[in-house]
Amino acid sequence: MTLVPDVGFPLEKAMITPSESALPWVVAFFRGWRCGLLVALAGWMGWALPAGAADLQVEYRGGATSLALRTQDARQQLMVTGTDGRDRTHTVRWSSMPEGIVSVDRDGRVAPLRDGEAVILARTEDGSEGRMPVTVAEFDRSAPVHFANQIVPIFTKNGCNGGGCHGKAAGQNGFRLSLLGFEPAEDYDHLVKEARARRLFPAAPERSLLLTKGAAQLPHGGGKRLDPASDDYRMLVRWIAQGMPRGRADAPTVSRLEVYPAERVLPLNGEQQLVVTAHYTDGSTEDVTRGALYEANDKDLAATDERGRVRVFNQTGAVSVMVRYQGQVAVFRATIPLGVAVRDLPAARTWVDEQVFQQWVKVGLPPSGLCDDATFLRRVTLDIAGRLPTPDEVVAFQDAAARELPVGGDGTGAVPRARDAVIERLLASPDYAENFANKWSALLRNKRSDPRQARGTYAFHGWIQDQLDRNVPFDQFVRSILTASGDLNENPPVAWYRQVRSQQGQLEDTAQLFLGQRLQCAQCHHHPYERWSQADYWSFGAFFSQVSYKPGSQPGEDVVVHRRGIPQATNKKNGQPVKPAGLGVTPPELGADEDPREALAGWMTSPDNPYFARTLVNRYWKHFFGRGLVDPEDDLR
Question: CA-to-CA distance for 457 and 460, rounded, in angstroms?
Fold first, then answer.
């Protein structure tokens, strides 16, 4: 199905009433013969199409002023916004003129009935209204059903291929589907070829076991999943009646997902209807609002339903709703403001200050006042140096602060030089390096499970502390760890490879620690909330395929070496070899003598890498503020 935005003239300019002359009819015809003719005829023939300016905005995508539906399978969710920016989708009365072209249910979903043109009306009890012209074409054309694009999403939406049902590794009661539908070819074989297709009955599709169990007409452990009156049920019947076609191999696939609106400010106990559009590789689009899955990241702030309706509770804050369809993800963000005026903010000193202050104003959340000097000194010393300030430091700081104007006092916005000086002094102190060496040592698994590993543990910790003390750039710090070779005496970072000896451990730790990507799920199946597949998992792991170990000079201290050879890993799903590749990028060409870890470090620390810097910032933000900008701090999906 393709939805083609048709930007036309404003409808209200073509509205006429039966008492008006025929001149507006002629003007409407020449200004926009399709929708203009329809609207003019509505007034000329006395249809109950109200005149006047629209008070409500009917939309399904930003900037679209009309709607086109092609084929009988086309559907489109609409949403209505009032002049106050509030959602009115579920409080308006829906209708269309002339009748019989389209139907609109009480939730604003449009379905075609026959070819033609109409105007969809949304009206509130107080007389406010909004309009959306619609054209229906090719209604009688019955296109073959495509299994991967039209049937698999039904299984996903209804939970049939979830991990607790038929999507688990062994299936459920003899029927197996791929987890969340990421392997549609396997799903097709399980249904159509396995057990002589006993779950399908083309001669009488409604009697198919797939439908009678799904609709709970026969006992089903998963309960009722399908309503015989639903579009999903009718689509399955059509597919079976057509002979269970697989669909064209070159059919377009979903390339991205769009949610509209992407962001809204909602009142307490407010709601918002979402419209979800799938964009296909051939440029076509399809409304998948009823086929997508919705999940709020904070269940205490908001709840969602299967129709894309978001309801927020009587609690202020910010909440995100993850929308999933066919392996693609989009996010809707809602802000529920407290509504208190935010005044007397301190002067912004950095871009970060500006962003934080804007959010405070948007949410209507006044910040706490600036802490006094004693509190500041205690907090900053604990955070940076990992200790309390000494008596001498307290006295020195108080003397320096006393010589300054109060921060923001008398409206001057004086720069707190004494506080800046404390921060710089602590960052340059050995205490900073020691404190953060302990933190990085824990993150890098620097521990000993054998008494013989004590020397390496101390050596690695000392190396980390030295890097921090010398203020080595973070990209060089990470590169030294990932590409480490040799023994502990020459290169202490090789101790990291002592704890992560397997290829899987090396790739998973690298992705999670330095890129904020949790790839563990993708070892067995497509990542449920991201685009990473098993191919991505093993391609990333191929960077470590040539890491090898030799006995060292001391017991329990292996030497890490690069083994000569073409780097590659085996995708355990299909047994095919894969080349090393960063996440979402083309594999580099590597020779047998090149250490692929160097290529990995180069890609990770490149300015074009979208994960590396964000992960570092998020990790440090959590350290100083107790919670990352993204939480958990190592899951930046």
Answer: 5
